[in-house]
Amino acid sequence: MIGKSAVSRILIVDDHAMVREGLRMRISAFADLDVCAEACSEEDAMKLVREHLPELAIVDISLKSGHGIDLIKRIKSHAPETKVLVSSGFQESLYAERALRAGALGYLNKQDSGEKVIEAIRTVLKGERYVSEEITNRLVAQALGNKSHNKNPIDSLTDRELEIFRLIGNGLTSGKIADQLMLSSHTIDTHRENIKRKLGVKNAAELSRQAVQFLLENS
Questions:
Q1: Distance (Å, whole) CA 80 – CA 129
Q2: Domain containing residue 201: CATH number
Q3: Does residue 2 sit within a domain?
Q4: pLDDT on residue 151
Q5: Close Cβ partners of 140 (under 8 Å, ≥ 6 residues apart)
Q6: Are 85 and 108 in contact (CB under 8 A)?
Q7: Of the candidates 141, 166, 184, which is a domain's last residue?
Q8: What percent of the chain has pLDDT over 90?
């Protein structure tokens, strides 16, 4: 069990050292918040979660080794009392709902001000959700059975397929995607075929063009 103490322990997971440093400096200005550890990959993060049992993990979606959505699920499975706040450079509409479904309580854009960062941290530490009004309204509409919010073909992709689609847009080959996500090239190729089918894409060139366009519109 994670004991309640005067100081909340926070784990930062991001593969960019400057981002981790910036978050650490903002957080360290408050006596009741303590960055107990930092990680740059999914596996390092899990090791530190087990070691420190932080009250909060701030997780980036895009990691050079592993994937933020997978990490959220693993954290909630192994340390259910550790709350998760996502800090991402992607638009909230792209990953927020997926992050919440995986077990996160909040979604923060890396461009947000330092005041919003601290507000998000304190909100999530209290066990409350921190997302925009737009995402809240979409979640309510879905709960009420309004399907009009799910007409984008991208929404039909699984979390894994969306991550592979994003990496295709970044110009990565199946082999490099396999290395980054720690999967086999055959598995990646299978996912690529599923993505093409769901998006109505005929060939690899068209898939790449759509993936690049998608990133331009959502970053």
A1: 16
A2: 1.10.10.10
A3: no
A4: 63
A5: none
A6: yes
A7: 141
A8: 56
Evaluate if residue 145 carries a pLDDT over 90: no
Q: What is the pLDDT of residue 47?
A: 96
Domain of 65 in residue numbering reads as: 8-141
pLDDT digit string, tens, across residues 91-115? 777 788 889 989 999 998 887 777 8
How many structural domains compose the chain? 2
Q: Which residue from 56, 53, 50, 76 is spatially nearest to 13, judged by alpha carbons?
A: 56
Dist CA 181 CA 177 (whole Å): 6
DSSP string computed for 17-48: HHHHHHHHHHHHTSTTEEEEEEESSHHHHHHH
Q: What is the pLDDT of residues 33-64, one digit of tens each?
A: 999 999 999 999 999 999 999 999 999 988 87
Closest Cα partner for 16 from 64, 85, 54? 64
Q: Which two tokens stand for residue 106?
A: 């909040």
The size of the chain, in residues, is 219
Please classify residue 51 by burial: count the beta carbons closer than 10 Å to its beta carbon, then call 0-12 exposed, 13-18 middle and 19+ buried: exposed
User: 118 lies in a domain?
Assistant: yes
Query: Residue 149 to residues 54, 142, 162: CA-CA distances in angstroms?
Result: 35, 7, 17
Give the confidence band of 86 by pLDDT, cuts at 50, 70, 90. Answer: very high
Could you tell me which of 158, 174, 131, 163 has the C-alpha nearest to residue 63? Answer: 163
Q: Is the pLDDT of residue 132 over 80?
A: no
| Count of CB atoms situated within 10 Å of the CB of 114 | 13
Distance, in Å, from the CA atom of 138 to the CA atom of 114, rounded to the nearest integer, reads 26
Six-digit token string for 179: 């290395």
